[in-house]
Amino acid sequence: MSRVYTPRYQQNLKPAMRLAPGRVAVVLSLLGALLLALLARAIYLQVVQQDFLQNQGDARFRRSLLLEANRGEITDRNGEPLAISTPVQSIWASPVDMDLRTVPAAKLQQLARLLEMPLDEVMHKLSDNKREFVYLKRQISPALAQQVMALEIPGIAKQQEFRRYYPAGEMLAHVVGFTGVDGKGQEGFELTREKMLAGRHGSRTVLKDRRGHIVEDLAVIEPPRDGQTLQLSIDKRIQYLAYRELKAAMDVNKAKAGGVVVLDARTGEVLALANTPSYNPNNRAVLEPEMRRNRAVVDMFEPGSTMKPFPIAMALDAGKVTPDTVFDTQTYRIGPATVRDTHPKPAMTVTQIIQKSSNVGASKMAAMFSPEDMWTFYRQAGFGQSPQTGFPGESAGRLRDWQNWRPIEQATMSFGYGVSVSLLQLARAYTVFTNGGALLPVSFTRLASPLPGKGLIKPESAKKMRDMMVSVTEEGGTAVRAQVLGYRVGGKSGTARKLVGGAYAANKHIGLFVGFAPATAPRLIVAIMIDEPGAGSYYGGAVAGPAFSNIMAGSLRIMGVEPDAPSNNTLIPEHQISEVREET
């Protein structure tokens, strides 16, 4: 028989230590079961729970970063910046990725100090471990953001944003408007042209580690599309002049508020629009509702005698009168009501009715037409309807349906009571006289070419009206203080009592002047309104006329417009002015 070889190490084993075949089978079975369990668990996690686990991983480490588009600039007609975006930084945190127990207290205190926030507020924001994103401080300087990041607190990050800056400040606040902290327009053209200016943001999907560092780009970067530049019709030089003179008129007359509009008489473009009081859009810490009101666009008021040229132009264009037609201008009655002039004269020509601002004369010319005809003419002149400039909150004014007019109401509407307008509407209506009888559309954006106007009166009628309206600023007129050296100026002053609680207040007025120059071939229209002057005088020629003169004179020089007055033309000295006060 052959002998079975037994290894030496087995020869030395005691019988109790040798593995029985049954035990080997048990061990192998347990190992196999464990392997099957692990395999089953892997299949469960990779197949059944794949979406859940993927979402949990993405929630912790996958981030979609906003690539902010640059907001478009707003410029004046000459390319001067009126609204620009400057880069700033915002500090944010991801509380779910933070363990405040590992952050030294000194660093948290330093973070609160840099951000100028109470420590309790910082801790409150960082302790909400259910939030993935929270702003700590927005729109801080890049230098300050760099100091914050130097603290190297896990879960604290920065992102670039843009803050809007307005170089023109308060003088253009009501036109340009402003944006909120999120970069969206809140007022003015920042609001109305939001889509154009904002552009489209891009995005970038990345994988971050627990310290907030970007590890990998996970998707194709979608680049941002910057906003477009908006070029306004405003001339910053004229705007500065208009705002300065309006503020000066407010101070001199101790007025409550005021507004001014400067139009290009040939195109209808708004070259300047200002209001007082105003505000600084770069610092809105104290911003009262009264400061935000764009009075020239949204406020309605009864225009007083500045309406008289329209019924007169209607009668002139219809061939019912000439500049030399004489009217009986003595006080008369319409039913129980009386129509009178403060300084009555027995008779006046049509030219004198404009120059002396006669209520009686204007009402008698209005009486030559039916209420429907007069309503239609006013409507075609832009009253009672929005100017359609796209400006937020622009007023349509108020022009009641002609079927509800009483005879006395038709008379009062001829001299500016019973109809309400905005200053922008009033300025636009005067383009009928400066543009060959056609009413021009108003534009706040620079035009490549003038838009066509809508004919209202014949060109020869418009010229006759301009010649008659020049008499208003000449000796004996109601607005001698509106003269401009070297230029023939036409226009109309107005004074209106204010409605307070449904009744006309005896001591609250609006002083107005709307005019154009040079009268031979008008280039500019300036409309100015002084609300509740309190320094004594309240008549339009006295309170609005001087500001008009300064604005018109400076603007004509800026534009390089040649004088049209005779070479021996001189201004009437202040002490020699015998200005007629327009009727109220």
Automatic annotation (TrEMBL):
What chemistry does it catalyse, as a reaction equation?
Preferential cleavage: (Ac)2-L-Lys-D-Ala-|-D-Ala. Also transpeptidation of peptidyl-alanyl moieties that are N-acyl substituents of D-alanine
List of catalytic residues: S305
| Domain Penicillin-binding protein transpeptidase residue range list | 258-552
The UniProt keyword set, sorted, is: Carboxypeptidase, Cell cycle, Cell division, Cell inner membrane, Cell membrane, Cell shape, Cell wall biogenesis/degradation, Hydrolase, Membrane, Peptidoglycan synthesis, Protease, Septation, Transmembrane, Transmembrane helix
Where would you say this protein principally sits, based on its record?
Answer: membrane
Which pathway does it operate in? Cell wall biogenesis; peptidoglycan biosynthesis
What Enzyme Commission number(s) does the record list for this chain? 3.4.16.4
Domain named Penicillin-binding protein dimerisation is located at 68-217
Mind telling me which InterPro entries this protein's record contains? Beta-lactam/transpept, Beta-lactam/transpept-like, FtsI_transpept, PBP_dimer, PBP_dimer_sf, PCN-bd_Tpept
Where does this polypeptide localize? Membrane
What Pfam families does the database record attribute to this sequence? PBP_dimer, Transpeptidase
Q: What does this protein do?
A: Catalyzes cross-linking of the peptidoglycan cell wall at the division septum.
Give the family per the record.
Belongs to the transpeptidase family. FtsI subfamily.
Official protein name in the record = Peptidoglycan D,D-transpeptidase FtsI
Organism (species): Vogesella margarita
Give the gene that encodes this protein. Answer: ftsI
